[in-house]
Specification:
The structure holds 3 protein chains of 3 kinds.
Chain A (H helix, E strand, L loop, with lengths): L1 H17 L1 H21 L7 E7 L4 H12 L4 E6 L3 H9 L5 E5 L3 H6 L4 E8 L3 H21 L12 E5 L6 H32 L1 H6 L5 H30 L8 H25 L3 H17 L12 H7 L3 H15 L3 H30 L1
Parallel strand pairs in A: 1-2, 1-3
Antiparallel strand pairs in A: 3-4
Chain B lengths: L2 H21 L1 H21 L7 E7 L4 H12 L3 E6 L2 H10 L4 E5 L3 H6 L7 E5 L3 H25 L8 E8 L6 H32 L1 H6 L5 H30 L8 H25 L3 H18 L12 H6 L4 H14 L4 H25 L7
Chain C lengths: L4 E10 L2 E11 L4 E5 L6 H8 L7 E6 L8 H7 E4 L11 H12 L3 H15 L14 H12 L6 E4 L8 H16 L3 E6 L2 H4 L4 E6 L2 E6 L1 H7 L4 E5 L5 H8 L5 E7 L2 E6 L18 E4 L4 H9 L21 E12 L2 E12 L3 E5 L6 H8 L7 E6 L2 E2 L4 H6 L1 E4 L11 H11 L7 H10 L15 H13 L5 E5 L7 H16 L3 E5 L3 H4 L4 E6 L2 E6 L1 H7 L10 H21 L1
Parallel strand pairs in C: 3-7, 3-8, 5-6, 6-7, 16-21, 16-22, 19-20, 20-21
Antiparallel strand pairs in C: 1-2, 1-4, 8-9, 10-12, 10-13, 11-12, 14-15, 14-17, 17-18, 22-23
Helix pairs in contact in C: 3-5, 4-5, 8-10, 13-15, 18-19
The chains are: A alpha/beta, B alpha/beta, C alpha/beta.
């Protein structure tokens, strides 16, 4: 039995590697995704263009503008506007993300210790970026207020915000480690899903079925290569995150790999499930894609699960990526203790047992 | 060859294509299932808007001020609050990701408040999700400021802060992320149909040998391509109609532009996606490769590099430069503008022109690359 | 008058390899023109050149008065083309396919109605007009493809391998249709790898490696070897051994098994050997027989087969005479449809058993149940005494399986394929000694690191056979093993099979190919899910001998038996 399984696994690894399409599938998409997700998938706000409509004659508005314009990486260009219409037109045409308006009495009010306000008008078509920008503006104005003469015992208490785990709120510290979940999912699905379809297309599947290999052995022979390749690609991304992006890796690597193995098992179960339904590699790929898109969108990677409606939050409970993302963030950034990892591990174990069992059942049924 | 003959042939090709879409599982998946799936996922699931975000409120010592502040956090629709007495109690929840932020009201909160201490309260956010962390900080300080204003007002003391920021959001005053995500998603859905589906069905004709059979009939290559373009153009526009309707009626996204302009701009975009689909299928006469190529050359860039979710200006310059050849980059802001702002020529004209240029180039290449015979 | 098709010094080169090599030939209208040759001979390339789908690298080409490349519009109006792979839209119905082609060809109104009526009755597809083309059997697909090509009556009809994967009955119908069309004055080009089809053509172009081996009436070629074809009769049970010896005789240039007899072709001017010289029993006799096209083709190629096989050297299994494969009441139901019903037979060691039957008759279902690919709804299939369901793994360890398209891992090298099959069959020492022997015996050494998918056809077949027999199976299942293979490769293959059988291996084979069926000791004919006849090829032939057909071929017998069931079946339905 072990000899047969070994032969099946070696054959599978060779088949994936020597098939130009299979090899391309293992190399090109991960690289494209690694580049795109690491560098492009950012919600940070940088290099924005803003407009100023300054009716104020005093120095406070100019000083504030300079501080705003000088904020590191934040503002690329400040366009000076001359009237209201010009400003709104620039906002409408998306030439600028924000219009900053200083009223005619801005500096005078400050000088006279009257309340003064910086009016900002933001583009709601990019409300996420606009809100981040608003936050920046607020903190700059806040800080400026604290430096105003006579502000030592300021009128307005300010708040101190500290970010745990990722003090500078670097986007890449989130996206690059989480890429492990996305890419290993894709690899696991594709390797198992496509391999069965490939054998069907070639006609070798029947050859396999008439051999003494038992269905269980065939399933193991299809599962292990996906697991191995998934673990290898996962390791590459972990290395990439830690060594290239300098993401701290505080927690237990051992727990991370254990979780990745369980996660991959769950995913491969889905891959086998897909493969038992499809006839061609093309259909297998579409099937994998149809699974990956919602699994990633509902995993909490891009947007928090807490923002979803309650019924959809329930749906996310069956998404293995949801748990793995928590573990990845935990192990990388939070030095997550074993107990908490296990809390997120056992649901994945349940999912893996379920998907693998269902897939093997379906698989065996298709064999007969 | 009379025009009537030509028309009959085209109608026959279009009818054939329509029948096939309904009968092929892959086509149905791409044309119907995936668009609807994405639409509902984005309508319900993908949201940047904090909604009962779990926070931990640490009240080290009860006081009147502390309980008033607590009440205002509890009343906020943005937070779901759990209480604690020490920061340490929340530490585990923060690590486990069960709460996104911890707000610490220190034991001498009241004193600090009255003493106008610069930092009467502390906010600790979970930085492992930086975007949410930033939004959390904004919303928490917003709640704090509102509370402060009310509190100061009730005591009849100096109401407004000395220097504040008044922010207004045009086009989307409620700051609903769905309002900009759903219109932008149309670009992705049209990419699925225009590029992925078109590439798939044309490559299937090559793979199954039907293209060869068609080429041996009096049909010209031009007619064959038109026979593909028309049905998938119509399907793409139908998807636009369905998506727009669902977005407006079910998800309450405003639509402030005119339908005519929407159709015109979408047509130009759809042409780019169709051109890309045809190009892929002439280069890869194999369904598997075509699907993959469409996924990585159209779908993924449409998602990541179009400004739909992620910020183009924040990307490093080589990628920023690359986005200029991604058609969705021009279409996503156009759609968001037509929905939320109306027909703004300043956005629509330059973007449509860019799309037109891309479409022209793509079709020129397709015309050049499409084989008139099996050997080119 | 200009001939219908004029090919003048035409070459077509792909990369460095010429697929058509300075070919000059003329095809006339109102004739059935056969384009004959093994796979890779250049048949498809030539047809595509004629259809204007490829541009010749050199030479001149005129089809129905048009230059296919310069005047495609005119050409396509008068040329109908049916590609090898149907060219049908499988997810459209029969009628929708027809309507599409009629619209494209501008056949409308009354003309269309009449055409459809005529075509549907001509192809007998009227009953299936609402069925999806993808759900049709191979034969029906070809008939539909033909109907689609004929919505507008062409001057030239190009048919690329219309008889591949088609059972003898449908094949005969296709021939009848083609003959009809020829009668209407249409020039038909029919390409085929089956050499026996060449004899039915008015004119044959025999292609080999892009060159013309022969062009003219098929009789002209067979006449070249007249008097050199012989049947060796009265061989008893020893025909396979005699064949091996006969092939060593200097006079014999070709030999195959034909039912109980051997067909030999002698070298030019060679005296006929005596039975004793061939090592045949004294009862044997050597009788002249009319030469066949294939005899002449092999003679033209001038390459001799040796009949040697590495399997001959292996020790006997000692199973001769024992029942090794047994089907008892095998039944398979798919929903309410019974694909196979109560099929029973027993096959002995050292016997070749052929499963024949029209497409969709239940032959493949039976075959799959026998080798364990399908679970029977009822009955038992046993191999070497093991039940394929309850002791599947043991039973499967005793069988070898080789499918139509040499299902090897095309991206794996020859060695990796061998290693894999050695591993999965659990051979001792990882199969190293066996693999070494196989590689040497089959001459795979030079190709050992080559991807299996890139091997020449003959070597692919050798590798597939090596993989299927490495574990020394007692029973070998062959699913259309030599479909589309050239006659020499096919002879080599059957040489190995004969050697295996000589050692006591049992062979079960399905085929549409009557030449292959002639190798069988016994044939089971499956129709409408039942085993309607069983017996040696000669007995089946004898059963369908009639006054009108005194010397039936196996194909005649096949069709006759199926039709008699059809008649009786209808009689039953009536009562």
């Amino acid at each position: 039995m072990w000899q047969r399984i070994r032969s099946l696994i070696i054959k599978e690894l060779w088949a994936v590697w020597r098939d130009p399409k299979g090899r391309a599938m293992l190399i090109i998409p991960p690289i494209i995704q690694m580049v795109l997700f690491s560098f492009a998938a950012t919600l940070e706000v940088k290099n924005v263009e803003i407009a100023v409509l300054n009716r104020d004659m005093g120095g406070h508005s100019i000083e504030l503008m300079q501080r705003l314009a000088g904020a590191k990486d934040l503002v690329r260009r400040v366009v000076v506007m001359h009237d209201e219409e010009e400003a709104t037109a620039a906002l409408a045409a998306q030439d600028v993300l924000m219009v900053v308006r200083f009223g005619a009495d801005f500096s005078r009010d400050i000088g006279a210790r009257r309340p003064a306000s910086v009016d900002i008008l933001l583009d709601g078509r990019r409300s996420n970026a606009a809100q981040i920008l608003e936050g920046y503006v607020e903190s700059i104005v806040d800080q400026y207020q604290g430096e105003l003469p006579g502000a030592a015992r300021g009128q307005q208490p300010t708040l101190v915000t500290r970010a745990f785990f990722n003090p500078n709120l670097e986007s890449a510290w989130n996206t690059v480690p989480c890429l492990t979940a996305i890419l290993t999912m894709l690899v696991g699905l594709v390797v198992t899903g496509l391999s069965v379809a490939r054998e069907r297309e070639l006609g070798t599947f029947e050859q396999l079925l008439v051999s003494p290999a038992r269905p269980g052995e065939i399933i193991v022979g299809k599962t292990v290569p996906g697991l191995l390749i998934g673990l290898i690609e996962g390791s590459l991304i972990i290395g990439f995150a830690h060594f290239v992006f300098a993401v701290p890796l505080g927690g237990s690597l051992w727990l991370l790999y254990l979780s990745m193995t369980v996660y991959l098992a769950a995913v491969i179960g889905v891959g086998l499930f897909i493969s038992s339904l499809v006839a061609t590699q093309q259909q297998a790929m579409l099937g994998a894609f149809t699974f990956v898109a919602p699994a990633i969108l509902l995993s909490g990677f891009a947007t928090p699960i807490a923002n979803m409606p309650d019924w959809l939050q329930l749906v996310t409970l069956i998404d293995p990526a949801r748990y793995f993302i928590v573990i990845i963030r935990g192990v990388f950034l939070k030095d997550m203790p074993a107990g908490l990892v296990l809390d997120n591990l056992w649901p994945m174990v349940v999912i893996a047992v379920f998907t693998l069992a269902t897939a093997s059942w379906l698989f065996r049924r298709r064999l007969q | 060859m009379t025009p009537r003959d030509r028309l009959r042939r085209l109608t026959a090709l279009v009818r054939k294509e329509t029948l096939q879409i309904g009968r092929d599982p892959s086509s149905l998946l791409i044309a119907v299932v995936l668009p609807l799936l994405l639409l509902f996922l984005f309508g319900y699931g993908v949201s940047f808007d904090l909604r009962r975000s779990p926070i931990c409120l640490v009240v080290e010592q009860q006081s009147a001020a502390a309980s008033e502040l607590t009440a205002s956090f509890l009343a906020s629709r943005f937070f779901s609050v759990q209480g604690a007495v020490t920061t340490r109690d929340c530490q585990e929840d923060l690590v486990a990701g069960r709460v996104n932020a911890v707000v610490v009201i220190p034991s001498d909160f009241a004193n600090r408040l009255y003493a106008r201490d610069p930092a009467p309260m502390q906010i600790l956010v979970d930085g492992s999700d930086p975007n949410t962390a930033g939004l959390m900080a904004n919303y928490i300080s917003g709640t704090w400021q509102t509370w402060q204003a009310i509190e100061a007002d009730s005591r009849g003391r100096g109401v407004a802060p000395r220097l504040g920021v008044t922010a207004r959001y045009r086009y989307n005053p409620e700051k609903e992320s769905r309002n900009f995500l759903l219109p932008g998603l149309v670009a992705v859905i049209m990419t699925l149909i225009g590029t992925m589906l078109t590439a798939l069905v044309v490559s299937r004709e090559w793979e199954r040998g039907t293209m060869e059979a068609m080429m041996a009939t009096p049909l010209s290559v031009f007619e064959l391509l038109l026979g593909k373009l028309i049905p998938y153009y119509l399907l793409g526009m139908a998807a636009l109609g369905v998506t727009t309707t669902i977005a407006v009626w079910l998800f309450d996204v405003p639509f402030r532009g005119s339908v005519l302009v929407l159709v015109a701009v979408s047509t130009v975009f759809l042409l780019t996606t169709l051109g890309q689909g045809l190009l892929i299928s002439t280069l890869a006469k194999n369904q598997f490769v075509a699907t993959q190529a469409a996924l990585f050359s159209a779908f993924l860039p449409g998602f990541l590099l179009s400004g739909l979710v992620y910020e183009i200006p924040s990307m490093p310059w080589p990628i920023r430069l690359f986005t200029y050849v991604v058609p969705a980059r021009y279409f996503v802001p156009s759609m968001q503008t037509m929905f939320l702002a109306g027909d703004v020529p300043g956005v629509l004209v330059p973007n449509s022109l860019a799309l037109l240029v891309i479409a022209t180039v793509l079709f020129a290449v397709v015309a050049k690359k499409t084989p008139k015979r099996l050997d080119g | 008058m200009e001939p219908l098709i004029h090919i003048d010094g035409v070459s077509k080169v792909f990369g460095a390899q010429p697929a058509i090599d300075s070919l000059s030939v003329v095809f006339e209208a109102g004739r059935l023109n056969g384009l004959v040759g093994p796979d890779g001979a250049g048949k498809t390339t030539l047809i595509r050149l004629l259809a204007g789908l490829l541009k010749p690298s050199a030479g001149r080409l005129r089809v129905a008065g048009f230059d296919p490349v310069a005047e495609p519009a005119g050409l396509r109006d008068v040329v109908a083309y049916m590609p090898q792979r149907f060219g049908l839209y499988e997810d459209l119905t029969v009628m929708e396919n027809l309507v599409l082609y009629a619209d494209i060809r501008g056949v409308v109104g009354t003309e269309r109605r009449q055409t459809f009526e005529r075509l549907l009755s001509f192809t007998d597809l009227a009953r299936f007009s609402e069925r999806l083309a993808g759900r049709l059997s191979g034969g029906m697909k070809q008939k539909l493809g033909l109907a689609c090509a004929l919505v507008k009556v062409p001057k030239v009809l190009l048919l690329d391998e219309p008889s591949v994967g088609v059972d003898p009955i449908s094949r005969r119908e296709l021939w009848r249709m083609a003959a009809d069309l020829v009668g209407q004055g249409i020039g038909v080009i029919w390409s085929t790898a089956y050499l026996d089809e060449a004899e039915r053509c008015d004119h044959v172009l025999l292609l080999n490696q892009g060159k013309s081996l022969f062009s003219g009436p098929p009789g002209d070629l067979t006449a070249e070897i007249s008097g050199r074809s012989f049947l060796v009769r009265g061989l008893g049970s020893e025909r396979r051994q005699v064949l091996q010896r006969a092939l060593k005789h200097p006079s014999v240039i070709d030999g195959i098994v034909q039912g109980a007899n051997l067909r030999l072709v002698l070298a030019e001017g060679a005296p006929p050997p005596t039975p004793a010289e061939l090592g045949a029993p004294p009862t044997a006799s050597l009788d002249p027989t009319p030469p066949r096209f294939e005899d002449a083709f092999v003679a033209r190629l001038g390459k001799r087969q040796t009949g040697d096989s590495p399997y001959a050297a292996r020790e006997a299994l000692g199973t001769a005479g024992e029942v090794t494969v047994e089907a008892k009441g095998l039944t398979k139901r798919f929903g309410s449809f019974t694909a196979a019903s109560e099929i029973s037979f027993a096959i002995k060691g050292g016997e070749i058993f052929g499963l024949l039957g029209p497409n969709g008759a239940g032959k493949s279902t039976t075959f799959k149940m026998l080798c364990g690919l399908l679970k029977p709804s009822g009955g038992i299939a046993r191999v070497s005494g093991f039940d394929l369901m309850s002791a599947a793994s043991q039973a499967r360890g005793r069988i070898g399986y080789m499918a139509q398209k040499f299902s090897l891992y095309g991206d794996l090298s020859v060695r990796q394929n061998l290693d894999f099959f050695a591993g999965i069959y659990g051979l001792a020492k990882g199969g190293v000694p066996v693999i070494a022997k196989m590689v040497e015996a089959f001459g795979l050494g030079p190709y050992i690191e080559v991807n299996a998918g890139a091997l020449p056809l003959g070597f692919k077949q050798r590798l597939a056979l090596a993989c299927a027999t490495m574990h020394d199976p007692a029973v070998l299942f062959l699913d259309e093993p030599t479909s589309g293979v050239d006659p020499l490769t096919r002879r080599e293959f059957w040489g190995h099979i004969n050697a295996l059988v000589g050692r006591g291996v049992t062979v079960v084979v399905t085929t549409h190919f009557m030449d292959e069926a002639e190798y069988c000791d016994r044939i089971g004919l499956v129709y409408q899910g039942r085993l309607i006849a069983e017996g040696s090829p000669d007995r089946l032939k004898a059963r369908s001998r009639t006054g009108a057909c005194p010397d039936p071929t196996l194909e005649d017998a096949f069709i006759g038996l199926v039709e008699s069931v059809e008649r009786n079946g209808r009689g039953h339905d009536a009562t």
